[in-house]
């Protein structure tokens, strides 16, 4: 089959590789209809997270079931399915508690949590390819209505729509709350959109990319360009000095200032400053325990020196981590089906698999208009 293969930082190619096959009785093989490029793919792409050469990329996958193992009972050949980016066993203690993001059995390294085509997440190939092997298929796969309707909306169910929603869950967004979202990448836009779905009164979105901020405006959020204005001043003024109830971090360890210099503590400091006393912060932007490319020695060892003292004095709660996609994907699918959610407003490009290497370059450069790229291997 054809697949997007990682050969080293900024070196990808579309290669012929062996077809994945059913290896275990509970496996399925999926023919991919859509696989997205994610901001998380840029961490190995830029060499900031170590990934083995030869890995097939892609953790945001959907498609049609091509083959199932002898033990698969629920999912049938021909089913249209969304594949959560968390690869989980379904029977360990964390899976039983709904934390598929911290599955204790799927990652052979012993680290909690596994995924497709991603650093530290196990040996599993990704789905930026014609075919994908899905272990524990009955547990992991979400069924979708047959056909091709809502393809771009459903494509966001494997990661970023649930992840944005999870950011709101961690930040305890509920009806009437004032919410500030840092980052207007795909995840930040999904967090802002989810905050609206959850009934927020006002939502601010902070970034410096005008095209991304324009999408935030389009869904009724208030954009703040941090190159022009101090986000804290804007939100404090709009809330009579009270601050936002909820803050969602959708930037991660490569947070930077307007000139592009990285400061891994910058967004966390901003959030602690702008969220009211006893408010809540949800962190879905990724932070890492080792980052040889970090801008300071502490951050190289995953130690991020933000103002925890102020967070404590204000009694702010902070929750973080990977999204357990299965907690939300069924309900978010049903909101799409009912016409209550159309997350695909962020999709900027639908392209063939062969065009993936060029698309990575544009997305990595945050070139204007390259917000979210969907690859269609069957096209
Ligand atoms: N927790 C999860 O389960 C999960 C899932 C998917 C992605 N992620 C992570 O979420 C983060 C965002 O993903 P994405 O796809 O939107 O990536 P992205 O890189 O496209 O978006 C990040 C945005 O943050 C902006 N930014 C940088 N510094 C900033 C600052 N100081 N203030 C405000 N905005 C700033 C950038 O301009 C960019 O638009 C990444 O860290 C990604 O790895 C986490
Ligand atoms: Zn992703
Ligand atoms: Zn498990």
Give the SSE layout:
Elements: E1 2-6, E2 12-16, E3 28-37, H1 42-45, E4 60-68, E5 80-83, H2 93-96, E6 131-134, H3 137-140, E7 142-144, H4 151-154, H5 160-170, E8 178-182, H6 186-197, E9 202-207, H7 210-218, E10 222-225, H8 231-238, E11 244-249, H9 266-274, E12 275-283, H10 297-300, H11 308-313, E13 317-320, H12 329-337, E14 349-351, H13 356-364, E15 373-375
Parallel strand pairs: 8-9, 8-11, 9-10, 11-12, 12-13, 14-15
Antiparallel strand pairs: 1-2, 3-4, 3-6, 3-15, 4-5, 5-7
Helix pairs in contact: 5-6, 8-9
One zinc ion binds next to helix 2.
Query: What is the succession of H and E elements?
Result: EEEHEEHEHEHHEHEHEHEHEHHEHEHE
- Name the CATH architecture of the largest domain: Alpha-Beta Complex
Strand content: 15-25%
Number of helices: 13
- Please identify which CATH superfamily of the largest domain we are dealing with: Medium-chain alcohol dehydrogenases, catalytic domain
User: Class by helix and strand content?
Assistant: alpha/beta
Q: What is the CATH topology of the largest domain? A: Quinone Oxidoreductase, Chain A, domain 1
Q: Overall mean pLDDT score?
A: 97
Number of strands: 15
Radius of gyration: 20 Å
Kindly give the count of domains.
2
Proportion of helical residues: 10-25%
Regions with little confidence, pLDDT below 50 for 5+ residues: none
User: What is the terminal separation in angstroms?
Assistant: 14 Å
Major β-sheet, in short?
A: 7 strands, mixed
Question: What is the CATH class of the largest domain?
Answer: Alpha Beta
Task: Spell out which ligands are present.
Answer: nicotinamide-adenine-dinucleotide, zinc ion
Q: What sort of overall outline do the alpha carbons produce when their principal axes are compared?
A: globular
């Amino acid at each position: 089959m054809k697949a997007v293969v990682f050969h080293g930082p900024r070196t990808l190619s579309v290669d012929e590789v062996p077809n994945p096959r059913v290896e275990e009785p509970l496996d399925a093989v999926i023919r991919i209809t859509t696989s997205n490029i994610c901001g998380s793919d840029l961490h190995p792409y830029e060499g900031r997270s170590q990934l083995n050469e030869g890995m097939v990329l892609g953790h945001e996958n959907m498609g049609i079931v091509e083959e199932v193992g002898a033990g698969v009972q629920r999912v049938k050949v021909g089913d249209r399915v969304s594949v959560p980016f968390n690869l989980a066993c379904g029977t360990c203690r964390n899976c039983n508690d709904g934390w598929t993001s911290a599955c204790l059995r799927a990652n052979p390294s012993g680290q909690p949590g596994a995924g497709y085509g991603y650093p530290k997440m196990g040996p599993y190939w990704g789905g930026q390819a014609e075919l994908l092997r899905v272990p524990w298929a009955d547990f992991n796969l979400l069924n979708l209505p047959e056909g091709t309707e809502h393809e771009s909306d459903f494509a966001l169910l494997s990661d970023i729509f649930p992840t944005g929603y999870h950011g709101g869950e961690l930040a305890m967004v509920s009806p009437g709350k004032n919410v500030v979202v840092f980052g207007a990448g795909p995840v930040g836009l999904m967090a802002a959109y989810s905050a609206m779905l959850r009934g927020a009164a006002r939502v601010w979105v902070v970034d410096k990319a005008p095209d991304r901020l324009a999408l935030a405006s389009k869904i009724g959020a208030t954009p703040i360009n941090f190159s022009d204005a101090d986000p804290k001043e804007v939100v404090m003024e709009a809330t009579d000095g009270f601050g936002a109830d909820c803050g969602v971090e959708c930037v991660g360890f490569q947070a930077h200032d307007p000139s592009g210099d990285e400061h891994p503590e910058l967004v966390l400091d901003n959030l602690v400053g702008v969220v009211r006393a006893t408010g809540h912060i949800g962190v879905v932007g990724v932070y890492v325990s080792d980052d040889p490319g970090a801008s300071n020695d502490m951050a190289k060892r995953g130690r991020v020196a933000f103002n925890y003292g102020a967070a404590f004095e204000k009694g702010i709660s902070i929750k973080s981590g990977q999204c357990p996609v299965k907690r939300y994907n069924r309900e978010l699918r049903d909101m799409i089906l009912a016409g209550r959610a159309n997350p695909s407003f962020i999709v900027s490009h639908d392209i063939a698999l062969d065009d993936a290497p060029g698309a990575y370059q544009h997305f990595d450069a945050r070139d204007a208009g390259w917000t979210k790229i969907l690859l269609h291997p069957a096209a």
